[in-house]
Amino acid sequence: xxxxxxxxxxxxxxxxxxxxxxxxxxxxxxxxxxxxxxxxxxxxxxxxxxxxxxxxxxxxxxxxxxxxxxxxxxxxxxxxxxxxxxxxxxxxxxxxxxxxxxxxxxxxxxxxxxxxxxxxxxxxxxxxxxxxxxxxxxxxxxxxxxxxxxxxxxxxxxxxxxxxxxxxxxxxxxxxxxxxxxxxxxxxxxxxxxxxxxxxxxxxxxxxxxxxxxxxxxxxxxxxxxxxxxxxxxxxxxxxxxxxxxxxxxxxxxxxxxxxxxxxxxxxxxxxxxxxxxxxxxxxxxxxxxxxxxxxxxxxxxxxxxxxxxxxxxxxxxxxxxxxxxxxxxxxxx
Length: 334
Prior knowledge:
alpha/beta; Rossmann fold; globular; AAA+_ATPase; ATP-binding; P-loop containing nucleoside triphosphate hydrolase protein
């Protein structure tokens, strides 16, 4: 009974928005989304996280995330990809955090801008007993300004539903893995993942951090989501995504990539299209029919020989990946 009461309370909260919900066609023209303001660019230096037992998770990571771009953070397991997001947000409370952060050129903590910061966790946080539209409407009502009218918020929800390709399931219950086999109208796992992303998009954040939003999705669904994120970047949103072993067609949709090696050190940051030429220039050869994104991860894991230096080791020595990147790109290693 208690759970049923909570469910009804949620429904009453979002009901006014549902009453004026747009029922238009499949046009991709936005109703409410306009240019993202303010536009936020981040620059950081020396970001590090050390656990209480002395284990270093991140070691002096430098980089920048610019507005109007979708950036991929890649690296092998344990490289500190998610920890970097937590450190920048000020939520890495499980260890000692160090480093400096500039927001549009002004040094400050990102936590001060929490209202314009979005975060999509790896695990879904949807209300499984509500429909897709109810979930998004509830989030819009909680996250948006009180002065924004219900008609406008409904248009925002419509925009997100259209953007994420959820129009045909907007009135379906999101459900869960357990309920999916029992309810005919339950959403699939991929649709549920899109709803999870939509919960943040309705808030129209200036900066959106995402932790493996495409995990568990097939390549086509992952490509669709990245294409949607690029549309938001075109409006000025700064989108940073942790991603694990994407196919190359997905990898190519990112504007830039930050590649972390073991112990959380920067092995490369730059345009996604520049990653392969960079590694070739320092002595690595891409095997035939190899996914370049997998190739990069193999390099930082020490699984690929360097033809220019047979004694190459990714983490130590004068020709380690981290030292080499500082030599080739000193402006990105300050």
